[in-house]
Amino acid sequence: MDALTLTLSTLAKIVFIMVIILTFAPILVWAERRQSAMIQDRIGPVRAGVKIFGYNITLLGLLHPLADALKFIFKEDFVPPKADKFLHAIAPILVVATAILAFAVIPFAEPMYLEHLGQVLPEAAARAGVVIPMQVASINSGILFIFAVAGTGVAGAALAGYASDNKYSLIGGIRAAGQMVSYEVTLGLTIVGCFMVYNTLLLEDMVTWQREHVWGIVAQPVAFILFMTCSIAETKRIPFDIPEGESEIVGGYLTEYSGMKFGMFFMGEFIEVVALAALATTLFFGGYDVPFLTSNGFNVFGMTANLPHVAVVGLQILTFVVKLAVMIWFQLMVRWTLPRFRYDQIMALCWKYILPLSLLNILVTGAIILLLS
Amino acid sequence: MAILVPQPNRSLADQAYVPAIAKGLGQTMRKFFKNTLSSKKDIVTLRYPEETVEYPERFRGVHRLTQRADGSPRCVACLCCSTACPAQCIHIEAGEYEQGDPRHGYERFPKVFVIDELRCIFCGYCVEACPCDAIRMDTGMHMPPSTDRSHFIYDRETLLSIPGRDGTHESANPRHEPGDPSHPGIDRDRH
């Protein structure tokens, strides 16, 4: 592959990922409000509308995020007089950037062979031409990259708390840092069992393993529950929203943020939800895997229906997006079901329950693998 | 001495949280799917300006002046209502009928009938005090909101124009005009 193709294809993939993220994030704002309304027997936001030819177009309230964004942009961007201006400004950028970066290694379809787009993909030996891996970057540290990036995200929240010159913000920032660092440790450990089963750190190889064997949720059910718990804690959302407990510390590290800077934290939170859904999909729900769909087309217990390569790839991208949406829906469901924890309960849950359980999971997985081999 | 608090006797399932969380998720999901997919929704919110709740039957709404058959007010300007009004929000200026009118010397009519709806406490004493069933609060409406205080000073024509809940401007109670041969008693002045 020459440099031009590489650049162009990578750019195209980045645009695709950004489109997915930047459409999911505002829709999530709407989804969260409407979904909570549906759970609580309300209607939710349906008012914001645009009058076109006398018809009031509301799109079921989908225009509310747009109105929110407009409001964010036109609001005064207030910085406390004694705040550290530079850190205060850079914190929301850090949060959003790290949240988006996590998508770089997530595969959303099988590698695309440009030469074979219109035909059924031939056997591996007969494949030729340019092949484009359908993920932005195939980094050989794989999932460790996501953890590294998520670790940088802690800095955003902590800096926001530190730079605001506000006691509530500082406490919120400290809480956020403590919580996120703790849960990062366990987040990593919970999916070590998956690495052992898949025998790889590369996300694309994990999906390939799941396509050939079973989905991760069947292979590692305990890891799934632990991973979901830890990852929801990583996003700092209810039931783990201790860093911004309104009744105790006002808005936590968000207290001194207004306008679009607050909007960026807001976006960052929702992008984290999407990133998490993508990670959970890739690790436990087969990523872009469509049941019975092989690279050549459908194969249901011996009955085959061949599909051209481009259709297979398209179907996989579509499946990935649908799985993403379902995982996000599930996370919102959890958010509107559970009450919040106390800070000591969060820490106890992390260090006294999830950590030993994930270690036990690694032990049992290792023992089973040893027995089977 | 330390006080030993008895530990709650919780089973492993309780302590694992997972069954309880699953139960809670089941509850919220049932609500979610019922309110999105099913035709029998539990949603209680009304889209207010478009949808409203009917006020109860005896709700004391905004006042109205009932009309006679010819459209003039039933009110005879006896000032009973303005006397009974604890908020003193009713202002009436009585007028005499022309000489020769059968009603002259028998009853008067309100030249001016003004209710300050912002002063009114909606106690309903005026309705009770009225001997002619001329003022009623059975409109079933609250005052329409406004940004101008002068919009809440309801004059005679405004009050006459507000219909009752049944849509009519009359009262269900019968009225006999002076000169009605079936009720000669009300013509006592001319006998």
Helix-strand blueprint:
The complex is a heterodimer of chains A (373) and B (191).
Chain A lengths: L2 H37 L10 E3 L2 E3 L6 H11 L10 H17 L10 E2 L17 E2 L10 H21 L3 H24 L1 H7 L4 H10 L3 H4 L1 H14 L11 H4 L9 H26 L8 E2 L2 E4 L2 E4 L2 H27 L7 H30 L1
Antiparallel strand pairs in A: 1-2, 3-4, 5-6, 6-7
Chain B lengths: L11 H5 L1 H19 L27 E2 L14 H5 L5 E6 L13 E8 L8 H5 L5 E2 L16 E2 L1 H6 L30
Antiparallel strand pairs in B: 1-4, 2-3, 3-5
In short:
The complex is a heterodimer of chains A (373) and B (191). Chain A is mainly alpha-helical.
Name a few traits of the molecule.
heterodimer; A: 373 residues; mainly alpha; two-stranded antiparallel ribbon; B: 191 residues; alpha+beta; 5 helices; 10% strand; elongated
Written description of the protein model:
- The complex is a heterodimer of chains A (373) and B (191).
- With 373 residues, chain A is mainly alpha-helical.
- Chain A has one domain (75-372).
- Chain A has helices spanning 3-39, 64-74, 85-101, 143-163, 167-190, 192-198, 203-212, 216-219, 221-234, 246-249, 259-284, 309-335, 343-372; strands at 50-52, 55-57, 112-113, 131-132, 293-294, 297-300, 303-306.
- In chain A, strands 5-6-7 form a three-stranded antiparallel beta sheet, with no helix packed on it. In chain A, strands 1-2 form a two-stranded antiparallel ribbon. In chain A, strands 3-4 form a two-stranded antiparallel ribbon.
- The two termini of chain A are 39 Å apart.
- With 191 residues, chain B is α+β, with helices and mostly antiparallel strands.
- Chain B has five helices and five strands, in the order ααβαββαββα.
- Chain B has helices spanning 12-16, 18-36, 80-84, 125-129, 156-161, and strands at residues 64-65, 90-95, 109-116, 135-136, 153-154.
- The N and C termini of chain B lie far apart (102 Å).
- The interface between A and B is medium-sized, with 14 and 16 residues.
